[in-house]
Structures are given as structure tokens and as C-alpha cells.
From TrEMBL:
KW Manganese (keyword) present: no
Enzyme class: transferase
Biological process terms in GO annotation: phosphorelay signal transduction system
Protein name per its UniProtKB record: histidine kinase
Reaction equations catalysed: ATP + protein L-histidine = ADP + protein N-phospho-L-histidine
Classification via SUPFAM superfamilies: ATPase domain of HSP90 chaperone/DNA topoisomerase II/histidine kinase (SSF55874), PYP-like sensor domain (PAS domain) (SSF55785)
Domain of life according to the entry: Bacteria
Originating organism: Arthrobacter bussei
UniProt domain Histidine kinase: residue ranges: 293-488
Keywords, comma-separated and alphabetical: ATP-binding, Kinase, Nucleotide-binding, Phosphoprotein, Transferase, Two-component regulatory system
Length: 492
């Protein structure tokens, strides 16, 4: 939301933490806009005089007074004097009721954001007064809360760096429920939504006039599951978040202590019923666990099939039949290895470098029980979607086996596996894989299309959507190159 560009950083003379403090302000000031029933604008001085708008927030509790975006624009001449006074005085300055347009009257306040005795920026609040009516108790309380927070901004007490900035869903908002506490943690006011949220936890007659800590403790059935931050949140002593649960209801709480120059004089507690959010999250966790279990069982079944093929091959009299069963066993084992990797993580993607390191050595060793074959790897495959990992592992397995059995042809040698992953101009990742050996090289009539190479060609063209090319390796031997697009947006 904020536009803290490098030129502003260079000319602002910010000290350590100043820019981060303003970022924290803009990240949390939607709460103030909702409490104030007003638009908020953040102004920063320009070298040549005047101010530029860095950010703008509209209230969700009322209609906006600015329908067009003015971030990046210079301040209007009729607003600048008020901002100038606030910048110098370091106090909240209020204008009279001014008709900014032919159809709307607004009350404007300028609030200097002061840190370590220096004004860093000015926040202006713009509240529509054209539809004047007697404000409700809720509105009066909300506006007082907004004023208290903004005044803390003039003292450098808000925003607080201890405020949680985690990304977990379900952060309480003003409209979800607000409770105001006095310095002793006794409820002074609770919004209707706040009362409703607590009543879902259990039978609560009223909140006002009672300590929130006492109310919360009485509602909790299983105190072994209580978050250790709960006492400091429900008493309003620390600007933290916590979560409580009872009777199948989950309530997210956030405390904002209210302070002045001398001491803490109260707190705001925002509350939100996040039962449905947590239920959906648990469903996702359960589905992830189910998927992992499926991959685990598939891996076990494939390993069983591979073991049966191994047993059958030992009983085969025909060498050709034994060789066919051993090749089938290796292919099944390769697929099982991919499922084993998928069963160990939440994401449906594979760290292919870790997987192929084991598979590469295994393929060469199994294909060369009586040969001294060295294996060398270079480059990185990175994370690959599972729908590409399985066919690519099979292709590499077949090509390495072919290089050992036919390229090296019963003698010692080396097999290389090289990966080159790049991001193209259109943002798509491409992968080039090369399997090479220093063996006898390609026969005069080209390579023979056995079953293994037929499988390779089919997997490359249909499953991987790539190309494959055989060539003579410089220095002797054979080199096979695969090229494919990764389609990460579809697979991950």
C-alpha cells in the first residue's frame, strides 16, 4: 500500500527503524480508518515544499469521501496549512467543518507521526459530516478509540514493533468485534459482534463491567490447551494475538494496549470467530495427510511388485526372460522411489536432485554388477511437479541403463548426468538434461530401438512434452540430450 521509494529514503534522513515503523503503520491503519469512520491519507514532505500522498485507506464501516486514488499526488493548497501546523507542533490539529465540494462537508484532522522526537509523516483523517445525525454509543466509542490510537502515534507509542505480523488467516478486524478495557482489564464497552462471539463460546450474560480475563477463564473447558500468551492478551497488557477454543468454537483475539506519556490507561481487544476457518484448515491438513498416506501405500505396493518380479526372475531358466523381468523390476522401483519422496512432504512436488542422486547411482550399479562404472552429476534440477518427476526419472533410468549395458559394453567407464535449468523471457522454466558416456559410441547405422528406448521416446514426447536427441560425445562415447518445458503453473 505504501510507496516508500528509494528517493524518499535518500532525502528523508530516516534513522534506523523509521521506515519500518511507517510500514508498520500503513500495514495496520485499516483498523483506525474503521474506528474513525473516516478516510486516512499519509503525507510526506517534498524537498521543494509541499507534501506527497504516500498511502490512502478507506473505511469499511462507512462510505469513502475520496472515490479516486490520489496516492503519488501533491497535497492540495487548502489542506497544506493544516498539515504544516501539525508537522511543526507535533500535535493533532483539527480544521473546522469545511465544504470541500458542493455536496459534502468534511471534518479534517492532521496527526503528526512522531518517533524519537522527529516528525516522520502526517496522517490526515477525513470524515463526512453531510449526513449529520445523533451518533450511537458504538460510533462514539469507536471514534474515541481511533483518537487514542492516533494520539499514541504523536507520542511514538503506536504502532508497536511487538505487534504480530504473522500471515495466519483469521486476524481480527474492527467489524468482527471490539472490546474496550480499562487499565484493570474490566470491560468498558463491547460491540454487538464482540458479545456474540463470546456467547458462542458459552453462556455469557453480559461482558460490560466484568474482567475479561475472568470471563474467558470461565468459558475454557480444557485449560491444558490454553496459549501461554492468553493472560497478557485478555488483560490488554501486551500487543499480541492469541486464540481460544471451547465447545467447538475458535475465537481469535488481538490486544492493543492504550498508553499516554506516563502509563497504560486501557486496551482494545479485537475478537473474531474463526471456527469455520480453522475447520477448513483442519480439512486441508487431513487431506494432505491422506494424500501422503496414499503415496506411501502406492510405494509399498510397487515395492511388493518389484520384489515379486525379482523372485520370479531368479526362477527363470531363459536368460532373455530373466533380463526382461529385471528391467521391469528396475522400472517399478523407479516409480516407487518417486512416490516415496511424495509421501514425505505436503507439496505435490519433488526435490528432484535428491531423488535422482540415489536413482542415478542405483541404475548404474544394477546395470553393471561386474563392471567398474563411475557416475558423475552436475547442475540442478530443482523442484519438479510430480506429474513430470515420474516420467523423467523413468527416462533417466532407461538411458543410464542403456549407456552402461550398450555404451560401455562390459568395460569400465564413466556415465555423466548433467542438468541445465533456465528461465526464459516469457517466464517459463526450461530444463535440458544430458546423459553421456565414454563408451563405444553410436553404431554406424544409429542406435537400435529396443523396448527401453521405445519407452524413453514415448515418455519424452507424450508425458514430458519435450524432445530427445542422440549424438556422438566429443572425446568418444554417446550423448543423449532431453529438452522440456516445466509447466510449473500447472503442476505445482
Amino acid at each position: 500500500m505504501a510507496i516508500f521509494t528509494d528517493p524518499i529514503r535518500e532525502h528523508a534522513g530516516f534513522e534506523p527503524g523509521d521506515a519500518e515503523w511507517l510500514h508498520l503503520l500503513v500495514g495496520d491503519w485499516q483498523m483506525v480508518a474503521d474506528l474513525a469512520f473516516a478516510d486516512l491519507a499519509l503525507w510526506f514532505p517534498l524537498d521543494g515544499g509541499g507534501y506527497v500522498a504516500l498511502a490512502h485507506a478507506r473505511p469499511s464501516t462507512s462510505h469513502t469521501v475520496f472515490h479516486s486514488d490520489f496516492v503519488g499526488e501533491r497535497i492540495r493548497a487548502d489542506l497544506q496549512p493544516l498539515v504544516d501546523v501539525a508537522w511543526e507542533s507535533q500535535k493533532i490539529e483539527r480544521s473546522g467543518e469545511t465544504n470541500w465540494t458542493t455536496e459534502m462537508a468534511m471534518r479534517v484532522e492532521a496527526v503528526p507521526m512522531v518517533r524519537n522526537g522527529r516528525t516522520l509523516a502526517v496522517v490526515t483523517t477525513h470524515m463526512d459530516l453531510s449526513s449529520s445525525r445523533m451518533p450511537s454509543r458504538l460510533e462514539l466509542t469507536y471514534r474515541q478509540c481511533a483518537y487514542d490510537l492516533l494520539r499514541m502515534g504523536t507520542l511514538g507509542l503506536w504502532p508497536d514493533f511487538a505487534t504480530p505480523t504473522g500471515s495466519r488467516r483469521g486476524a481480527p478486524r474492527v467489524g468482527d468485534g471490539l472490546i474496550r478495557l480499562d487499565v484493570d482489564g474490566i470491560v468498558q464497552y463491547a460491540s454487538p459482534n464482540g458479545v456474540s462471539a463470546f456467547r458462542r463460546l458459552g453462556d455469557v450474560e453480559t461482558l460490560e463491567g466484568r474482567p475479561l480475563a475472568e470471563i474467558t477463564t470461565a468459558l475454557l473447558k480444557d485449560r491444558r490447551m490454553v496459549d501461554e500468551t492468553l493472560p497478557l492478551v485478555v488483560t490488554g497488557r501486551m500487543p499480541w494475538r492469541t486464540e481460544i477454543g471451547s465447545r467447538g468454537v475458535s475465537l481469535s483475539l488481538r490486544a492493543i494496549p492504550l498508553r499516554d506519556e506516563k502509563e497504560r490507561f486501557g486496551a482494545l481487544v479485537l475478537c473474531r470467530d474463526v471456527s469455520e476457518l480453522r475447520r477448513r484448515e483442519m480439512e486441508l491438513v487431513s487431506k494432505d495427510a491422506t494424500i501422503r498416506e496414499i503415496h506411501h501405500r502406492v510405494k509399498n505396493n510397487l515395492q511388493t511388485v518389484a520384489a515379486l518380479l525379482r523372485m520370479q526372475s531368479r526362477r527363470m531358466v531363459s536368460e532373455e526372460g530373466k533380463l526382461g523381468l529385471e528391467q521391469a523390476m528396475r522400472r517399478v522401483s523407479t516409480i516407487a522411489l518417486v512416490h516415496e519422496t511424495l509421501s514425505q512432504g505436503l507439496a505435490q512436488s519433488v526435490d528432484f536432485d535428491e531423488l535422482i542422486s540415489r536413482q542415478f547411482r542405483l541404475s548404474a550399479e544394477v546395470a553393471s554388477p561386474s563392471q567398474a562404472v563411475r557416475t558423475e552429476r552436475s547442475g540442478d534440477f530443482g523442484e519438479l511437479p510430480s506429474d513430470l518427476a515420474t516420467p523423467l526419472a523413468l527416462v533417466i533410468n532407461e538411458l543410464v541403463t542403456n549407456a552402461v549395458e550398450h555404451g560401455l559394453s562390459g568395460r569400465a567407464g564413466t556415465v555423466w548426468l548433467m542438468a541445465d535449468r533456465q528461465t526464459e523471457a516469457d517466464g517459463e522454466d526450461t530444463l535440458r538434461v544430458t546423459i553421456a558416456d565414454d563408451g563405444v559410441g553410436l553404431p554406424a547405422g544409429g542406435h537400435a530401438e529396443g523396448l527401453g528406448l521405445q519407452i524413453v521416446r514415448t515418455l519424452v514426447t507424450s508425458e514430458l512434452g519435450g524432445t530427445i536427441e542422440w549424438s556422438t560425445r566429443p572425446g568418444g562415447g554417446t550423448s543423449v540430450t532431453l529438452e522440456l518445458g516445466l509447466r510449473l503453473n500447472q503442476g505445482m
